[in-house]
Amino acid sequence: MKRITLCAIGLALAAGAAQAQPPSGQWFVLHEEKAKPSQVALYESTTREFVELVRANKAAMPSFYFTVMQGDDFTYTFVAPIENFASMDAINREFGALMLAAGFKFGDVMQRGAPAMESRSEMVVGEEPSMSYEPATPGLQMTDPEAKFFHYTIYYVMPGKEQEAAAIGKAYSALFKSKNVDRGYKIYWAINGPDLPALAVQRWGKDEADFYAHEAATRALLGDAVKPLDARALAVTRRMESKSARVRPDLSVRPEPAAAFK
Question: Measured between alpha carbons, how far is residue 91 from residues 10, 163, 213, 222 in Å?
Fold first, then answer.
């Protein structure tokens, strides 16, 4: 089990950046760990031990927080907010301080959890508010405690079509606003990674049934007006993926309300 150690990706970030203009919203580093289905119990128990080490030694990691999202394919994504690339140097320093503070326990947890993990990967994403949509009176916000189911549609954009994709995203947002859709969504550009350019649309619901019921109602509300935008979006897309995930508060380390995520 190798936790969120970012030294390896730090060297590749500048070379992997897809956007000439970086996303203007909140950035996040995503650390994905895929657990072996046969070892989920071991993976989660050692992850909880890791979380307890972080909480018990918070003085060593004062600025490090993360939310864990569990996918249906046993992928656990640690989502940590950062300000910029330099923020990862601070995370690495705090991990070093945690290792010193926790002593033997840190290495023991890592070693015992390692057999339960199939693979791991990291990437950095940033929200682009100009492409996202926030209703004036949202029916369900992403940060509401009732929002427990999250869906992601990932568009792998054709190289050279980033500006057109951004324009399409803004047109979608304008259409949703004109129809007064009561639930928002967020769009993130991948800032580094092996298969760029790519963007992800994040939507949410109270649970899976609520999410798909609201999606059907939204499509009905948008009607034929959305079809030209759908066609434009597909025309600049070389590949698509869909994923769903659920928040795991028991595996997360969140800040106090006064220092909540942006």
Answer: 11, 32, 40, 43
Name residue, tokens 């189911």: 149
Dig out the tokens for 127 from the structure: 């929200």
Lookup result for tokens 């993990």: 117
For the chain, the 3-state helix, strand and coil shares in percent, each to the nearest 5, are 40, 25, 30
Neighbours of 164 (CB within 10 A): 15
Among 248, 243, 247, CA closest to 73: 243
Give all domains of the chain, ordered by start, each with its CATH number. 22-124 (3.30.70.100), 128-244 (3.30.70.100)
Handedness of CA 23, 208, 36, 50 (dihedral sign): positive
Which residue bears the tokens 């590749």?
A: 12
Write down the pLDDT at residue 12.
Answer: 36
Parts of the chain with a pLDDT under 50: 1, 5-18, 257-262
Q: Tens digits of per-residue pLDDT, 87-145?
A: 888 888 888 888 888 888 988 999 999 999 999 998 999 999 999 999 998 889 998 99
Token look-up 């203009």 returns 21
User: What is the pTM (predicted TM-score) of this model?
Assistant: 0.85
Positive or negative CA dihedral for 190, 83, 133, 21? Answer: negative
